[in-house]
Specification:
alpha/beta; Rossmann fold; seven-stranded mixed sheet; 14 helices; 9 strands; globular; binds adenosine-5'-diphosphate; binds magnesium ion
Length: 338
């Protein structure tokens, strides 16, 4: 059974499509059979993986709608090994409203459509549209877990609570096992005060929910649609390519752990279904104990008690953002806060 991960945020331009595409390509490079499912009718996925839209015979809409096309018939191959794609709608047809109506009437339509192909893939990545409406609910209802890209350039994380409420409703009505893989910081530029503040405040407010990997703002990522290839493929050694490889590996660890837990549970009947990974508990907080000298090196994360955190806070003068700045400034004497 494939694991389904939805990339969601009600905000546009935060890096959902970029993350979905690089995640699929990054995990495919690790040998996983990947299916990318585009639910955003903007159709930005196909050009980013170099898939020819002229080859589209059927779409997700055809599979979920009255045409009842078999899901396998909507799968497009891509030039990337181990990456297949289903497009939301035909690019030359005006089908956006129809897709939304269908999602409103049948919130489980995507979940059911994906069940038909889930033995063909290890993981399925859903690129969700920038809404909190029926299409977003459709994605969450079909997913095992979700990732929320958070752009480190504005206080976009302030709308996170609304998204997490929407998640709660989907859990309650359709998908009790749905869990959060993590909040992923995107477009991070630690030379700016804004990025420093967002990174710091997201860690302060959401602790363990923030992914260890974070994606810098770089040309190698921005260029992806122009190159027609995911960053992890066209520029694997760039800062962006390395960061997205880290994102993929971080999620791969979760996937492999779940696989092991399922195997273990199957061996020790009665069968226990893998439960949500632990969310940050009230008694714990997360501190970054070591910062990378470049954005691509992994950060070591350590969980400590609130009392310890309070003591360390007293010992260390200067706020988190300032500490981050100091570390980067040591590396780059020209760095200035602007
Ligand atoms: P969404 O799917 O949330 O609307 P996209 O993934 O399409 O967001 O990204 C929005 C824009 O920002 C695109 O032009 C994309 O190329 C660019 N972009 C995304 N991530 C980065 C990054 N890390 N560095 C530079 N540009 C980026
Ligand atoms: Mg998008």
């Amino acid at each position: 059974m494939a694991k389904v991960i939805a990339i969601v945020s009600q905000k546009g331009g935060v890096g959902k499509t970029t993350t979905a595409v690089n995640l699929a390509a990054g995990l495919a490079r690790e040998g996983k059979r990947m299916l990318l499912v585009e639910v955003d009718p903007q159709g930005a996925v196909a050009p980013s993986v170099g898939a020819a839209t002229s080859a589209i015979r059927h779409t997700l809409l055809d599979c979920m709608g009255p045409a009842m096309v078999a899901t396998g018939d909507a799968v497009l191959s891509t030039p990337l090994e181990n990456v297949s794609l289903i497009c939301a709608v035909h690019p030359d047809r005006d089908e956006e409203l129809e897709l939304e109506r269908l999602a409103a009437a049948h919130p489980l339509a995507l979940s059911e459509a994906l069940q038909q192909v889930d033995s063909d893939y290890d993981l399925i990545v859903i690129d969700a549209p920038p809404t909190l409406g029926p299409l977003n609910r459709l994605c969450l209802a079909a997913a095992d877990s979700f990732v929320v890209p958070v752009q480190a350039e504005e206080y976009s994380y302030r709308t996170l609570e609304r998204l997490l409420r929407a998640v709660g409703e989907v859990q309650q009505h359709f998908n009790p096992g749905l869990f959060c893989e993590g909040l992923l910081l995107t477009m991070v530029d630690l030379r700016t005060r804004m990025s420093l503040r967002v990174v710091s405040q997201l860690h302060d407010n959401y602790g363990d929910m923030v992914m260890v990997a974070m994606v810098p703002r770089t040309v190698s990522v921005q260029d992806m649609p122009l190159k027609g290839k995911p960053t992890v493929i066209h520029a694997p050694n760039s800062r962006g390519g390395r960061a997205y490889t880290e994102v993929a590996l971080e999620l791969l660890v979760g996937y492999e752990t779940e696989q092991l837990a399922e195997l273990d549970a199957a061996e020790h009947s009665p069968r226990v279904v893998f439960q949500n990974p632990p969310m940050p508990s009230l008694g714990e907080t997360t501190m970054i104990s070591q910062f990378p000298s470049t954005a691509s090196e992994p950060q070591a994360i350590e969980t400590i008690s609130l009392e310890q955190a309070a003591e360390e806070e007293e010992e260390n003068s200067g706020d988190f953002a300032h500490q981050l700045y100091q570390i980067y400034a040591d590396d780059d004497p020209d760095l200035s806060l602007n």
